[in-house]
Amino acid sequence: MHNGRLADRDDPYSRKMSEISSKRSKTDADYEELARMEFLGGLYLDENEQPCIPGYVFEACIIGKGGAARKERMGKEAAAAVWVLDDAPLEYDGPRDPQELWQDKRFISQSLVRVQRNTVKRTRPRFKEWQANVTVEFNENLVDETDVRRWIEVAGEQVGLMDWRPRFGRFRVEWDGHK
Predict the structure, then answer these.
(1) How far apart are CA 163 and CA 14, in angstroms?
(2) Which end of the chain is more exposed for a tag (fewer CB within 10 A), N or C?
């Protein structure tokens, strides 16, 4: 998981990270705080400060670049006809509070990545076992329900969600039977 908010220089987490990064000599505590800020800033949180997956993230795996509908050359039709309005609370076995999540190492992913010519450690939230109930809406006058269901299945099997997809972002779809 990685919320793009850290690209915003005015974001509080981004400001704190810049403040620490600008130090000439950093301590181990500075590096730990940078990792914590990156982790907390990378979480998607709902209005109750609980982890969630935004509706637009689900939309992106269906209709975005590389999305399931685009694989079938139906991207424009899907973009006009499919939407996910609500964020989905993330269901998982673990703490709900972001600070407590940081303390539970099961939810931390750290990797070395290349940024320009440098190798840097990145810290991200990671939920290995999770589920979310998502309502996907569509305009029946523009696309067929069979197509939408297929796109969602393909999105889960081949496209995935968020960072380092499809390796870590794949999901299995279970239908509840409602239209």
Answers:
(1) 19
(2) C
* 10/154 Cα distance (integer angstroms): 37
Three-state DSSP state, 133: coil
Closest CA to 99 of 61, 57, 43: 43
Nearest to 131 by CA among 21, 19, 45, 51: 51
| Residue 9, burial from CB neighbour count under 10 angstroms (0-12, 13-18, 19+) | exposed
Enter the tokens of residue 47.
């209005």
Helix, coil or strand: residue 41: helix
Please count the residues of the chain: 179
**pLDDT digits over 95-124, tens only?**
999 999 999 999 999 999 898 898 989 999
d(Cα 117, Cα 115) in Å, to the nearest integer?
6
For residue 177, pLDDT over 70 is answered with: no
Separation CA 150–CA 165 (nearest Å)? 19
- The secondary structure of residue 65, as a DSSP letter, is T
Domain boundaries, the chain: 1-42+96-126, 50-92+128-179
Within 83-165, residue ranges assigned H as helices are: 98-103, 145-154
Mean pLDDT over each residue of the chain, to the nearest integer? 91
